[in-house]
What we know:
The structure is a homodimer.
Chain A: E1 27-28, H1 40-49, H2 63-73, E2 80-83, H3 85-97, E3 104-107, H4 114-121, E4 125-128, E5 148-151, H5 163-172, E6 178-181, E7 202-207, E8 220-224, H6 226-236, H7 246-257, H8 259-282, E9 286-287, E10 294-298, H9 304-313, E11 316-317, E12 329-333, H10 337-350
Parallel strand pairs in A: 1-11, 3-4, 5-6, 6-7
Antiparallel strand pairs in A: 2-8, 7-8, 9-10, 10-12
Helix pairs in contact in A: 1-7, 2-7, 3-6, 8-10
Amino acid sequence: MKEFWSERIRDMVPYTPGEQPRGRTFVKLNTNENPYPPAPGVVEAIRDAAGEGLRLYPDPECTALRQALAAYHGVTPEQVFVGNGSDEVLALCFQAFFGGERAIVFPDITYSFYPVYAALYGVTYRVIPLREDFTVPVEQFLGDNGGVLLPNPNAPTGRALPLEDIGRLAQGNPDVAVVIDEAYVDFGCESALALLDRYPNLLVVRTMSKSRSLAGLRVGCAIGSANLIAALNCVKNSFNSYTLDRLAQAGALASVEDEAYFQENRQKVMATRARTAAALEQMGFTVCPSQANFLFASHPDHSGKELLDGLREKGVLVRWWNQPRISNYLRISVGTDAEMDVLLSALRELL
Amino acid sequence: MKEFWSERIRDMVPYTPGEQPRGRTFVKLNTNENPYPPAPGVVEAIRDAAGEGLRLYPDPECTALRQALAAYHGVTPEQVFVGNGSDEVLALCFQAFFGGERAIVFPDITYSFYPVYAALYGVTYRVIPLREDFTVPVEQFLGDNGGVLLPNPNAPTGRALPLEDIGRLAQGNPDVAVVIDEAYVDFGCESALALLDRYPNLLVVRTMSKSRSLAGLRVGCAIGSANLIAALNCVKNSFNSYTLDRLAQAGALASVEDEAYFQENRQKVMATRARTAAALEQMGFTVCPSQANFLFASHPDHSGKELLDGLREKGVLVRWWNQPRISNYLRISVGTDAEMDVLLSALRELL
């Protein structure tokens, strides 16, 4: 029943995003959304942009947004690329930088979209096992690779690498692109942006979905040398000239402009994370040290699947993977303090 | 200076969209935008959707929008795919249906993005010359092709094929996908949707950019058998699970719901097109019979480039291609009556 399908997609297994429930109201801790609303200026900017101007194409270069991001991060606009969510930016990276004879490398436990991109674009890859404690064995990422892809902090573990190790990765793979996926970086991890001046092969990918509470707006970006950004533009302009609509450009720009709100928001999330991690540990959970807006935790006496199902029955959604090494873990997004209290009581009842 | 670029993109020449001018105000007849605003309900729906909900991911299935489009076109939701503009939908078609050993076919004069997609996704193609009068020689599209891609009406000529010929295309290429790009269909051309029941290999691609005045919102769709739509979903979910943000989904849905506004809008454009075509012919232009929201015209005494530059100096943007067979033609989008009057006076001065 796959008549007319191209050969390349017949055996493909697409990515499965976390459930977006309809109907019943859950405490939704399964897709790492931010529990707080976007900055007030975002909504205002979108409402202003929602007018007659919608009949006109958006700026394909996203000039104003790129300029704002460049100023914010202390780079030039030619070093900034924006896309329709960081998932799109990552997909374009596969086409722009990867796919030669040598395999690219990424960890065995990581964002589960990576192998899917590789299958779609025909990129060979090799996974490198994380250590037992889920830390990244950096030395194993150095060598004759076709490219490197690494989230920092990693997902779904939440563990972060120090800047020094990111530098080793870039230096140890000097002739290929090293892509650091910083989707969760704003929750306490050092950014590789500080290393861009030293490594022309280093690309930092980011999203506004998490720390800027804009998952519903679909805005991601990449920052690196102008040469790497030109490659992304080449792919983008061979695929879809206008990936960001007028409203997304306007809203994202307004978010960048409200620094105070951004800082307050991420501090709140980090404080709730610390409080929740401590409570989970008190209940006997092993909790990975997290620099992200989620916690990765397992319990010695209860399987991951059992807790997933039990929580769902009690109206709390978290995420679980039926996958070697981590099938006993739950990934729990950090919500508000009140939401985490619901989670913690539900877990207390289940244990 | 293409260090780190993947082999596949080093020689690629991206698509060049029509200019989106900044600064000076032009009468903008170069990118086939609709001169009238979107339906009033669109703006209202977007303003309603622009709130705290932006912190949450959008519905990756775009359920409400797909249901509305299905009801509107008399098909099931499983027969509808939506994407981030029809450019994205077309790009996904290349991956979903094309790329085997046999070349796909499209006309020599057509949407200039097609060969760019083919280069990006490694799809071999063969162009089939239009007849001297820019009509499509359907018989030459029948045979051992790897797929068929045809805009109806064609761009930039504006000429349309009757339904019967689309049927011949689908029937004459029974084992591959036949993709009809109906970006401009609402301006007077028969839609191939009427043939879907008979041809499981027929896919209709559409956009809300033109006839629904939503170029700035980036919404396109594909309609066909559930099997073809499943292939598009397989590619989409291997590339970017959430291609339509919350605002685009809400705005597009509201547009579908205002049928009266839609009908009035397209009638106005068609009336202005007829009036403008007549005036151009009176000035000595040869004007292609157009079923689209643009006119394709050439003058015996003045080159296309000369008129393009002259019009620009007078503040009117139109589109021109430095390409064999059509380098003496201008493509002129249909604006308001007042805008077309500016165009016509400018041309009168130039001739």
